[in-house]
Recover the amino acids of this structure.
C-alpha cells in the first residue's frame, strides 16, 4: 500500500520553452531532487550521433540542418517511459503531444505538469552561442561560459572530459531554423497544455535575476508540499 501511495505521487512533467531557455538544466535539477528520470530526446540523439549508431546517422541528417527528426524515429524513444518522468525536448509539435497523450492514456496515465520557460529573444541567442556541452556521451553535462562556466576552462566538472560547442549551436543558419520551427510548430503547445489546465509558465532571465535553478527550486518545493 505504501509503495503504491508513493508511486501515485509521481508526476509526469514536460519541459517546454525555446532553445536556450534552460530546459535541460531545470529538468536535471528536478530529476536530482525527485529521483524521477529525465528523458531528453536531444541528448539521446547526440549520444547516438557520437556513437555513430543507425539512429544517430539517420537523425543527424535532420539535426545538422536544425530540422525536426521525423516522428517514426522520435516517438518510439519515449514510448517505454515509466510513470514519473521529466520529458525534455518532447513533445515538440501538436502531433507529438497527441501521440504522447495516447501512449499515456493506454497506461492509465497523464501529463501532470508542463513547465513553460520563457526568455527574451536576445538572451536566448546569446545563451545558445555561449552554451558548451561535455563530449563524454555518458555524461551530457551542459555549461554556459558566461552564466555557469566550468571550474576549469574547457573541462567538464563532472567527468573531466573536454567541452565543446554543439554543432547546431555554432551554425547561425541552424540556430535561425530551430527558432523558426519553435515558433511555428512548438509554441502552439503552450495553448494546448493551458487548455488542459497543467501549464506553469516561468520567466527565466538575467534581467529579473530569475534563473533555471530558481525555477527548479520553486517547482521541487511545490511538488513536495
Ligand atoms: P534545442 O532545444 O536546443 O534545439 P535539443 O537538444 O532539445 O536542442 O534537440 C536538438 C535537436 O534534436 C533538435 O534541433 C531536433 O533536430 C532534434 N529533436 C530533439 N527532440 C525532438 C523531437 N521531439 N522531435 C523532433 N526532433 C527532435
Ligand atoms: Zn562530463
Amino acid at each position: 500500500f505504501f509503495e503504491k501511495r508513493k508511486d501515485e505521487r509521481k508526476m509526469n512533467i514536460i519541459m517546454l520553452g525555446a532553445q536556450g531557455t534552460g530546459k535541460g538544466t531545470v529538468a536535471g535539477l528536478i530529476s536530482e531532487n525527485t529521483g524521477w528520470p529525465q528523458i531528453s530526446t536531444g541528448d539521446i540523439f547526440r549520444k547516438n550521433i557520437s556513437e555513430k549508431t543507425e539512429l544517430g546517422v539517420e537523425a543527424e541528417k535532420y539535426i545538422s540542418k536544425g530540422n525536426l527528426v521525423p516522428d517514426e524515429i522520435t516517438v518510439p524513444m519515449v514510448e517505454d517511459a515509466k510513470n514519473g518522468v521529466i520529458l525534455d525536448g518532447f513533445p515538440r509539435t501538436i502531433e507529438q503531444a497527441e501521440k504522447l497523450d495516447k501512449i499515456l492514456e493506454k497506461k492509465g496515465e497523464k501529463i501532470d505538469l508542463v513547465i513553460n520557460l520563457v526568455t527574451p529573444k536576445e538572451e536566448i541567442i546569446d545563451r545558445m552561442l555561449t552554451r558548451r556541452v561535455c563530449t563524454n556521451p555518458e555524461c551530457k553535462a551542459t555549461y554556459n561560459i558566461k552564466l555557469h562556466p566550468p571550474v576549469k576552462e574547457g573541462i567538464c566538472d563532472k567527468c573531466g572530459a573536454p567541452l565543446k560547442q554543439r554543432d547546431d549551436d555554432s551554425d547561425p543558419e541552424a540556430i535561425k531554423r530551430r527558432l523558426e520551427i519553435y515558433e511555428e510548430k512548438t509554441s502552439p503547445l503552450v495553448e494546448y497544455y493551458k487548455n488542459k489546465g497543467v501549464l506553469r509558465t516561468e520567466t527565466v532571465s538575467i534581467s529579473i535575476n530569475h534563473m533555471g535553478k530558481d525555477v527548479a527550486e520553486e517547482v521541487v518545493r511545490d511538488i513536495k508540499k
User: Anything to note?
Assistant: Residues 19, 41-42, 45, 62-63, 66-69, 74, 89-90, 92, 96, 168, 178 surround adenosine-5'-diphosphate (ligand 1) (CB under 6 Å). The radius of gyration is 17 Å. Strands lie at 12-17, 38-40, 85-88, 113-118, 131-134, 142-144, 163-164, 199-203.
